[in-house]
Amino acid sequence: MVSITEENxxxxxxxxxxxxxxxxxxxxxxxAEHLSIKPTTANDMLKKLKAKKWxxxxxxxxxxxxxxxxxxxVEVLRKHRLWETFLYKKLSFTWDEVHEVAxxxxxxxxxxxxxxxDALLEFPEFDPHGEIIPNKNGDYKIHFKKTLDEVAxxxxxxxxxxxxxxxxxxxxxxxxxxxxxxxxxxxSKQCFDNTMEIDVGxxxxxxxxxxxxxxxxxxxxxxxxxxxxxxHF
Length: 233
What we know:
The chain is an alpha+beta fold. The strands form two sheets. A six-stranded antiparallel sheet has the order 3-8-4-5-6-7. Strands 1-2 form a two-stranded antiparallel sheet. It is 40% helix and 15% strand. The protein is globular and about 55 Å long. Helix 1 (4-20) crosses helix 4 (67-90).
């Protein structure tokens, strides 16, 4: 039996891997920051997860999901992102509202219910925030992507996802005039604090480096931008 807290830890480990665009290990401090908890608290739970053979890690080392741990994480992540998509597409929730509700719904154990929702939504590949949704078999592709702060001055990119699902951040994204698949041009950067001036459809905004680090983008010059190496940046 997997507890809700254990599911949250395993899902977070997988999310952090996907955000990096690879399956490298995750640091304890990185995990703690993602969950908004103290590293010591994370360490205590990691010991329990290791005892259940859901993660592999040594103190001060990187954390890796085991085969069984990854299976659990993928199932929870799939449910979460399907619920977000259902709330957004069928119940008219806004994209800044769906995350908190999906956090509650993702722990429902009915496989039949989740499969029915998947079919009702016509098997979506991405959630409202642009993140990949694993399929029924637990399969998914890790797409190469960069954050907006990595894009050079004068270059264009396409917003494909966000790294922060909090209500305040998503509302700010909308205020800036951004949404999934919008084209962004980096107009300038300030050397002092890396504040960026961006152009979205002719609307100029100044955004912080922290903001830019939470916007995932791909280049716009490739036939298959989600699998390219983004060298055009």
